[in-house]
Design a protein that fits this description.
This protein is an alpha+beta fold. The chain has helices at 6-19, 34-64, 98-111, 117-120; strands at residues 22-23, 28-29, 82-85, 90-94, 171-176, 186-194, 202-206, 232-238, 248-257, 271-279.
Length: 280
């Protein structure tokens, strides 16, 4: 039992602990008077307003240097990547079972909707063989050259709704990624090879010779070139029965121009490699 002499000491400790939060004698809260708290809060308010203002000013100045249509730095992407459709680097299917290749067919049909002849009638009938140069004004909307899916012939889905998958001779579509201002020199075309032990696999290219016509270049940017569609090259792999049940590596490259296709650091720059396997 505590002695009566300890009680004043306990009261004094309790009072001291409460005073550290609020001292009724001096009116201090956490060791500061109301005027002191007001001054320090005012200081931090002004300080953070200044920081916010500096940040907003910096962002505003930076945005003034940017163009809505053209990226500021484009030196790291001088050559476009090559992309295939259907969107798979491992195409495997059973030609006798429509359910095994239906997703490839649906993907190709969906992708080609914007290339329908009815959609492309809105675009210009350009002169082939030359760049389609237009006014460089940033505000003026740019015209686009027509690329009708009928140019893809037997790989258009108009004559064969299964794009050759039902007969074991599948089609793949190739396109170049968009790069603003790109004007490839020469006469770019697609060349595909299949690695197998026997004779090379025969292929058909659409349009003729698998060429990317210059009239589809340059591209001016999404904002002012709304109706632009990339030109396509369709490759129909004329596989034989001896090719079935084998995984065949296929490499496609852009040839005939200054576009790079041999950069070991980026194996999709100007080329693409995929595997295809047909089961009967």
């Amino acid at each position: 039992m505590a002695s009566t002499e300890d009680k004043p000491a306990n009261k004094e400790n309790t009072s001291s602990w409460k005073d550290s939060f609020y001292n009724p004698r001096t009116g201090e809260v956490l060791g500061r008077t109301a005027s002191s708290w007001a001054l320090i809060l005012l200081f931090y308010f002004v300080f953070y307003c200044f920081l916010a203002g500096m940040f907003a000013l910096t962002m505003w100045v930076m945005l003034l240097t940017l163009d809505d249509n053209v990226p500021k730095y484009r030196d790291r992407v001088p050559t476009p990547g090559l992309v295939i459709r259907p969107n798979s680097l491992d195409i495997t299917f059973n030609r006798s079972d429509p359910l095994k290749y239906s997703h490839y067919v649906k993907h190709l049909e969906s992708f080609l909707q914007k290339y329908n002849d009815t959609e492309q009638e809105k675009n210009e009938d350009c002169a082939p063989g030359d760049y389609f140069m237009q006014d460089s004004s940033e505000e003026q909307m740019k015209k686009s050259c027509r690329f009708k899916r009928s140019l893809l012939s037997f790989c258009s889905g108009l004559y064969d709704v299964n794009f050759g998958y039902a007969e074991g001779k599948p089609c793949v579509l190739l396109k170049l990624n968009r790069i603003i201002g790109l004007k490839p020199r020469g006469d770019p075309y697609i060349n595909c090879t299949v690695k197998r032990e026997s004779s090379p696999v025969q292929m058909q290219y659409f349009p003729s010779e698998g060429r990317f016509d210059k009239m589809y270049f340059p591209y001016y940017g999404k904002r002012v070139h709304e109706n632009y569609v990339q030109p396509l090259v369709a490759v129909k792999l004329l596989l034989e029965k001896e090719d079935y049940d084998k995984e065949l590596p296929v490499e496609c490259r852009v040839e005939g121009s200054d576009l790079r296709n041999n950069d070991e650091r980026d194996k999709f720059l100007g080329r693409v490699t995929f595997r295809i396997k047909v089961v009967e």
